[in-house]
Amino acid sequence: MGVITDAAESRKDDLQEEIGNLEKRIREYSDAYESLRRFRTAVSTSQGDFNTANTHRRTVLKDLDPVKKDNTVVQKYQSGMGDQLTGIGMKVVDAAFVGLQAMITLKLAEYWNKIAALEIEKGNKELEYKAIDVVV
């Protein structure tokens, strides 16, 4: 019976170490998740600020409408700036923000799934530890 007890105690020690390692990995993934979540918030804020600034610029351009019919410089300025604020450059920036948000969301889901899998693995090891306690 001593050999079985020794083996059980050895297995419990191994399980404690494995549980500790799993807890460490869970903390690491949780920290990465939180850091990325904060970054996503910063990206969303930047995207909103960018859109607000461009909306303001378009409004300022629109305010030039009464002056433009008599002034070719204003017409050219308004046309060029309008193209810049609604053209391909703006679409590329918008697409970049959308792409970045999508990549962040995918990575957050990956972290979340990894944390869940580690939690399950930890729970199984804790159950095994308790089962050994009951038997021994």
How would you characterize the overall build of this protein?
- The chain has 136 residues and is an all-alpha fold.
- 94% of the residues lie in helices and 0% in strands.
- The chain has helices spanning 2-62, 65-68, 72-86, 88-135.
- It starts with a helix and ends with a helix.
- 2% of the residues are buried.
Describe the structure using short key phrases.
136 residues; rod-shaped; 4 helices; 0% strand; mainly alpha
Strand content: under 5%
Helix/sheet category: mainly alpha
What is the end-to-end distance?
10 Å
Low-confidence stretches: none
What's the overall average pLDDT, rounded? 92
**Sheet bearing the most strands, described?**
none
Output the number of helix runs.
4
What is the ordering of alpha helices and beta strands?
A: HHHH
Radius of gyration: 29 Å
Counted beta strands: 0
> Rough shape?
rod-shaped
List the quaternary state of the chains. single chain
Helix fraction bin: over 70%
Brief write-up:
The protein is mostly helical. It has helices at about 1-60, 65-70, 70-85, 90-135.
Tell me the layout of helices and strands.
Elements lengths: L1 H61 L2 H4 L3 H15 L1 H48 L1
Helix pairs in contact: 1-3, 1-4, 3-4
